[in-house]
Amino acid sequence: MSKLCLFALLLIPGTVSIAQGRPWSDEIIYFMLTDRFYDGDPSNNLPKGCDPSTYDAKQENVDLYHGGDFRGIELALQSGYFNALGITAIWITPPVRNVWKTAYDEGDSGKTGYHGYWAQDFLDIDPHLTSSVSLRGEAYSNNRYGRLAHYRDLVRLAHEKGIKIIQDIVCNHIGPLFFYDQDGDGTQDLNEKGEWVAPFKKEGFHASAKWGNIPKWNIFKPEPREPKQIFGKHIEFNGILADLSTYSRKGFDDESLAKADGEEIDCDFFSLRDVWTKDDSIHFDELVDEFVRIYGFYIEEVGIDGLRIDTVKHVHHEFWSEFSKRLREKVGERAKDLILFGEVYDGNPRKLGQYTYRHDNQDVALDSLLNFQMCWSARNYFRHDANGFGHADGVERAMQDLNGGPPGELPYFNAKPGLDGLNSRQKSITFLENHDGLNRFRVKGVTEKRNILANAFVLTLEGIPCLYYGTEAGLIDEKVGVDENTETGRLTFIKRGDDTRIEELQSTASFKALKIFIQLRKDLPALRKGLTSTLWVDSREAPADDGLFIYARYIKNEPEKTVIVSFNLSDKRRSMHIDLVGINQEAILPKGKNLKRLPLLGIRRKLNPVTWEENPRARIDLPPESVGIWIVE
Questions:
Q1: What is the rounded distance in angstroms from the CA atom of residue 388 to the CA atom of residue 381?
Q2: What is the DSSP letter of 200?
Q3: Which of 540, 605, 531, 520 is nearest to 562 (CA)?
Q4: What distance in Å separates the CA atoms of residue 279 and residue 264, rounded to the nearest whole number?
Q5: Can you tell me the mean pLDDT for 449-461?
Q6: The pLDDT of residue 99
């Protein structure tokens, strides 16, 4: 039997709670790229009129559609797959109707919109995702109403399983729905790069922009353009998204997205079209209100539970202040159960945390952010070949920054509670990998065991843990190594027709291991809502770095709930005595109590006596390449 199969089954009783009313600090998020999760309905892989070249039946070309859809998610939900793992929330990529293909994008090549971020109709679901009949055998109409009905049924099924649904949204850009008519002939020249990706103009804009019309790629004027009646509800959409003056039309430069002088806000996103979100624009209020109507509909009528917001730093801060405020007002009572978390592709806590404040005062704007500072620090520590390891001091810094800030200034992350009573630190999203350039954590050279250890780290940190689809089965991207960041990790997880895979995955070592750590998080309150104090970290300047990191998760005034977590990434056993005191010398253990080790990675249960002198101290034993968890006896 392999070492990975030696996980002792630490079976702590637990039940699936209903999604409604459960605090976000208790959630375990599962992020899936919907097109790559499971093709449950092959009949939608080429919607009527869609260019056949957009679809790869072999499910191998990362730039083409693979077929993953709502039915695949429904089948997994119905089977109890997510419940078996312990998942309580699923974040899906944008489901709205997309542009299906471009001739030019990043890398001067054509790509498809399988990922969902190229919106064409914000109030329709892409037909690649929906089915003609429900799981109950009832027919869905072949229009926006039928597709939205399927989405609503998916959300209802998730709720029946006690699982929340988080919808990925985009307010920064639309798909390549207009072109830059460089030669002035009034026709889009598909093979002319300049008509897809125009050079950036710092002053002024490209007045040559014209709406496109390419049916086989679903390139039309954006929707909704007028009021709609959906699910018996009349919605007064103003059609502002179909007005060219709503867009910056400034084009794109290769260096634009990495800048911090405003160009990163004003530019297109490669061949995508930037929405003009400046607060002094004449359409600002209408634009904010239109997006509030759109996403308010998905919350109120479809029933989604949260929004993950794409490309936050490429939108004016003022927009997010107003959007978050007006959206919460729009959905009324639902607002207290809603989460709005954003993506700011930056490791600087100041840049991340600023969006948890309004631009003009200290009130809450976005509830939280994806914690890229922690992500990059954790990857530096864990993501290495074989038994290699990096420094954990960056991880310690990220832990401190989550609850800190520069002297004399506001904390990096807003400490003011939201409507649910939780603040942005408690709702910070902790993750290791995603669908963008970060790629999968597990690539060539990264073992399944190391992948398990890294996920165990995510599941024992402050904030809300987020797992990337496939990591629970040790899914590996064999095309790249640890020093490469690409999009090649956007692999299809459950191949078309492989219906038995859902059950087989639950027998893998990774699934069983992650299930244990998820259950531990649910059963140990300190892992969900405790503070963090580093107990040991190897110094970067030390002559020998053993790859050790030990920290405590504890709740003030409840030392009996303290949890000690340790990682040893070296290939040698380590033992040490450590002081068991929290930040500012706070007591984190009850007087006279000892530590009990939980049985993980084949380690037998063991009692660690605590000596009480000026500070409590305990001997911590760390087997090679392991995680250890101790609780109070």
A1: 9
A2: P
A3: 531
A4: 16
A5: 97
A6: 98
The residue extents of the domains of the chain are 3-523, 530-632
Q: How far apart are CA 109 and CA 130, in angstroms?
A: 28
H/E stretch holding 514? helix 509-523
Please answer whether residues 344 and 372 qualify as being in contact, where contact means their C-beta atoms are separated by less than 8 angstroms. Answer: yes
HEC readout, 262-297: CHHHHCCECCEEEECCCCCCCCHHHHHHHHHHHHHH
The predicted-structure confidence for 363-397, as pLDDT tens digits, reads as follows: 999 999 999 999 999 999 999 998 899 999 999 99
Q: Which two tokens stand for residue 461?
A: 């940190």
* E-only strand ranges, 441-518: 464-468
Please name which of 39, 162, 160, 150 lies closest in space to residue 89, comparing C-alpha atoms.
162
Provide the CATH topology of domain 530-632: Immunoglobulin-like (2.60.40)
Cα Dmax for the chain? 85
Of 130-139, 555-564, 612-621, minimum mean pLDDT range: 612-621
The phi and psi torsions of 113 (rounded to 5 degrees) equal -95, 35
Interval 236-259 mean pLDDT:
95
Least-confidence region, from 252-256, 409-413, 605-609: 605-609
Burial class (CB in 10 A: 0-12, 13-18, 19+), 600: buried
C-beta separation of 371 from 399 below 8 A? no
**Torsion sign across C-alpha atoms 83, 454, 29, 119:** negative
Integer Cα distance of 444 and 455 in angstroms:
17
- Both structure tokens of 489: 């990790």
Q: Are 521 and 456 in contact (CB under 8 A)?
A: no
Residue 92 token pair: 């899906």
Q: List beta partners, residue 576.
A: 620
Span 74-92, average pLDDT: 98
Q: What is the pLDDT of residues 506-547, one digit of tens each?
A: 999 999 999 999 999 999 999 999 999 999 998 776 666 789
> Smallest Cα–Cα separation from 295: which of 261, 256, 338, 253?
338
What's the rounded Cα separation, in Å, for the pair 156 and 135?
12
Token match 């709503």: residue? 246
Q: Report the distance separating Cα 564 and Cα 587, nearest Å.
A: 13
CATH 3.20.20.80 fits 3-523, yes or no: yes
